[in-house]
## 1
Amino acid sequence: MITVFPLPLFALTGDIGRGEVSWRDYLKKKYVILSVTVVAVVLLDIITKAYIDSHMSLHESVVVVGGFLNITYVRNPGAAFSFLASASPGFRSVFFLTVTILAIILVLYYIAKSKTEEPFMIFALSLILSGALGNFIDRVRLGEVIDFIDVHLGAYHWPAFNVADSAITVGAFIMLVALFRRPKEHDRKP
């Protein structure tokens, strides 16, 4: 029996070439990380957005930590930092749906090509995919994205974001760390 959650990433390392991991186990471990991450993040994103949408009025704000964190219900028709928010709704819709589908395909391709001994890279890509899917669901359903996490220092506010945006950001950070920690080609032993 396979224990899926919690799944320590360090337990998913191994080398097919040395016979430590069979091809079947290789695929299972790789796609367990993907499946668990996507299901958990997308469900959390959907649940939090549904809660905000059903329990708050648009632009309503609740202070969580004074001077630092509010839950503020906003809708973003654009992308990060309201990119293209003022473009026509038809253009925005086609543009964001197309870009998201291409990004999802690209991330799935990289996950398929990634090595089992790089569980952090697989996890990072899975987080990015999860965030893209979470916001894609909102765009298809609503034509815009529900944002609600409002981080600020006094009067200086960071643009509101959501669980999906957080997953993309954390995934990108983990991916950068994983890339910088990769051994260089000339450092690898034959």
Note: The chain has a mean pLDDT of 84.
## 2
Amino acid sequence: MGGQVVPAHGVGVASATDTGGGRGGRAGLHREDEWEIVVWPRQLPLTESNAMSFAVPLTRKEAVLRRLREEIITGLLKPGALIKDAEIAARLGVSITPVREAITQLAAEGLIDISPNRTRQVTQVTQKSALELIDVMMVLACAGFEWGVDNITDKHLATLHVKLDEFADNLRRGNLTAATAAGADFSTVVIMASGNRELQTHVDLVVARTLRVLALTTESDVWTVWLDGYRQTLELLEQGDRTGAVERYRQIYHDYRRRVETMLFDEPGEDR
């Protein structure tokens, strides 16, 4: 995750020498502003006034998709917020087409609801939906972990240490976006070791919504469930106790679910 060149303003989908219309040919999108080096993906603070800073050469749709997904996950776009493609296009400095394409993808991921009258809004998160999501994620992630654990090598263990350190470090810094991403990467290392790409595809479909629930449950004791669970799971893997590691990993989800059961969520229609 080294430094990558992106424009200081606007969507990062052009090279530093690209001052033409680029893909889609929208005049004015590729601005001749100064270019700067930033670290992607997760260290920059997310604010409503931030310029989009994504790795070259993402398409406009991919850049808009990542930005809106992160705004929803972190709560900058709150549950129930209306999604107006023209307003988003103007705010991000892109045409309306990539915004509509991104909204369609986010609807498929369950982050945006589209009503019969075509009104779009950020999907509500209720306690019931959060618990159901945790149950689904537990089935998928634990299956992948169990299938991948026998293929873990020393290189995998080293990567797990890196992700665990990133997770803990970002929690200390209060960077929950980076922490949740590192936590997801910890699981992905083992799931990908299974060689089952189809399973990882299904995990990817629900991981954004799972990270969103995590962002809504930011109490320190909740994060301790994950941090302690990951540490103990890694210790068991290093000891060669793969069965124990699978069980400890599964216990993380059970413990987290119990915590979520005690939490209050805004229900649809309540004031925010």
Note: Residues 127-261 form a domain with the Four Helix Bundle (Hemerythrin (Met), subunit A) fold (CATH 1.20.120.530).
## 3
Amino acid sequence: MSSVNYVNSFLQESYLPSTTSKSGSSSTASSAGGEVPPDEVDLSSDAFLRETAESGRIALNAANGDLTSDQASQLYQQVTSIQSQIQSDKQADGGTLSPTDAQTINQLQSQLSASIYSDAHNGDAPPSTPSTPSAIGGREAFEAGRIELNQQAGNITSTQAQQLMTQQTQISQQISSDEQSNGGTLTQAQAQQIWQSQNQASQQIYQAAHGGTPAAQ
């Protein structure tokens, strides 16, 4: 499988859980074809959404054999450092990031993103104009990030994380197979099926992180 590259700002639109009541409407949930269940991973801001996705890129590239365990460990240390910086800045700013702090965090995450790319491509520099990933590819990184961060937080065991990552690998293999059979792209029906598979995986991540408790619908 190819290395997992960039994850951009579309994550905010596609994956941020709705803050409306269950009876209210949610353009976020409808755009994603189903709301991602919230879990112990903080999904409340652009910064944390991107941090989750970048963690997923590390996990998926490591699973694909594109990163060594030492490289992955060093990159996760950068993730942890940025997470701590986000928390510290939010506490100092009354629970939100100031525009200046948000810009600084974004720059740190862009540096992390470039490091992930370089390590996964044998030291090559990232392209100056990276291609925007599809929603399908972005979600794969996001769900993998939820698995990794929940494991780091002690919410799921290493065995559970391995099982959930195996599921993501299987979905990735299905995407590759479907794209090969369709000239390099997914048909609408294939994309919908992949998204449904990710919805199921999302529920299983939530349940694993909450002791088997199903996510509220």
Note: The chain is about 65% helix and 0% strand.
